[in-house]
Amino acid sequence: DAKTTQPNSMESNEEEPVHLPCNHSTISGTDYIHWYRQLPSQGPEYVIHGLTSNVNNRMASLAIAEDRKSSTLILHRATLRDAAVYYCILRLDFGNEKLTFGTGTRLTIIP
Amino acid sequence: EAQVTQNPRYLITVTGKKLTVTCSQNMNHEYMSWYRQDPGLGLRQIYYSMNVEVTDKGDVPEGYKVSRKEKRNFPLILESPSPNQTSLYFCASSGALQTYEQYFGPGTRLTVT
Q1: What are the tens digits of pLDDT across the range A54-106?
Q2: In sequence order, which residues have a C-beta less than 8 Å from that of residue A80 and are 6 or more positions away?
Q3: Strand B87-94 to B31-38 pairing
Q4: Residue A18: which of A65, A81, A66, A69 has the closest Cα?
Q5: Which chain B residues contact residue A98 at CB under 8 A?
Q6: Residue A94: what pLDDT?
Q7: Half-sphere exposure of B105 (CA within 13 A, CB side)
C-alpha cells in the first residue's frame, strides 16, 4: 500500500498561515489525496481532498506537486480552534472506502 | 443537522460481559464502518458495511461482530470483551462510492477490566 510521511508535530502562531507537508512518493495514478483532522476529544473530520489540481474550500487549500509525490495542506489564517492532529491519507480501496490513518502531524497554535 | 451518533460515549465493563455500542446516522448513507484508536497505532478499521445486510471484515475484526439490518444503524457487538479491547471506538459513514467526505461519530471510550 502506498504510504504517507508527515512530520510528527508543528507549531504556528495564531492568525498566521500554516503549511502542513505530506510525502507520498509511491502514490499511484488513481489515488486521491485526502486530509482529515482530529480535534481533541473528537472524531476525525474531513478537511479537503484532491487528485491532481490544487483545491480550495472554506476550511483550507490543498497544493499538490506536479509529480504528485507530495502535497501541502494550507490553513490560511490559523486560529486556536485549528489545533489538532492532521492526517494525510491516500484513498486506496474504493470498494471498501477504508481510510488508512497514519500518525499524522500534531499542530499546536501559539496565541 | 447531519450527524453520526454513538452510544454510550463512555463504558466501563468487565471481561466476558457482552456489550453493544450503537451507531446511527441521519444522512441516508450506504457505507458505514467502525474504527478503533489506540496510542501509537492510530485508527484501524474493524468492520465495514457497504449497505443493508452487507458487512465485511476490516483490518482488526477479531473479537467483534456487527450487523446492518437498517440503513441508519450499524451496531458493534463485543460478545466476550477482553482487556485488549480497551480502546476508543469511532463509527463513520459516507455515501456509496464517494471519493471524499466520511463523517465520524464522537467516539466511545471503552474500558474492559
Answers
A1: 999 999 999 999 999 999 999 999 999 999 999 999 876 566 677 888 889 99
A2: A14, A109, A111
A3: antiparallel
A4: A81
A5: 33, 45, 48, 58-59
A6: 61
A7: 30
- Which three three-digit cell numbers place residue A51? 487528485
Across chain A, mean pLDDT equals 91
Nearest to B21 by CA among B68, B83, B85, B89: B89
**CB contact residues (below 8 A), chain B span 4-63, against chain A:** 4, 31, 33, 35, 40, 42-45, 48, 50, 56, 58-59
